[in-house]
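#struct-help
A.M.: can someone run this one for me? Single chain, 174 residues.
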Amino acid sequence: IYVVLKSTSKDLGDPGKDARYGWGVINAFDAVRFNSGIQGYVVDSLTSEGIAGAKVTIKGTGRVRYTAENGYYRFFAPPDNYTLTVSAFGYFAENVAVSVIENQWTIEDITLDPLPRGFLTGVVTDNAHNPVDNATVSLLGTSLSTRADNAGSYALEAPIGSYNIKASAWGYES
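D.P.: on it. Structure tokens below:
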């Protein structure tokens, strides 16, 4: 930040830093306008399809973007070296080193490997152990859900891990 502010200031006093004007008056527009940054796509390593909603963070800056439906992301950034941390539900996270050069856009496409998957199966029953048909079974904290069949049975594919599950149906309390 110091380098950007100093390089966009107009020196009004004696050359260099002085008591009255410091380094000069900052041109705020030039100080925040970057014609450089990082852009690219986050894609699935098996399908090469974009991953929607992947979280891309410039480590140590607090700057975060979430990818578009096609996996695209973009950060305006001044020239420097950065580390991107990329994560998405169902994928191993990645850290990627990136260099931004003045007046250039660094294209950094990032490939994420899917986590191993498994199946969660069961039967939704009421307090009397009768099957509950058409119940919705959801993995809390995710967008994954399914419906039980007429016998209350369900199967849900998900990345291997630990989840809290909620079953709900009309006319029943969860």
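A.M.: thanks! The longest helix spans residues 2-7.
D.P.: also worth noting: Helices lie at 2-7, 28-32.
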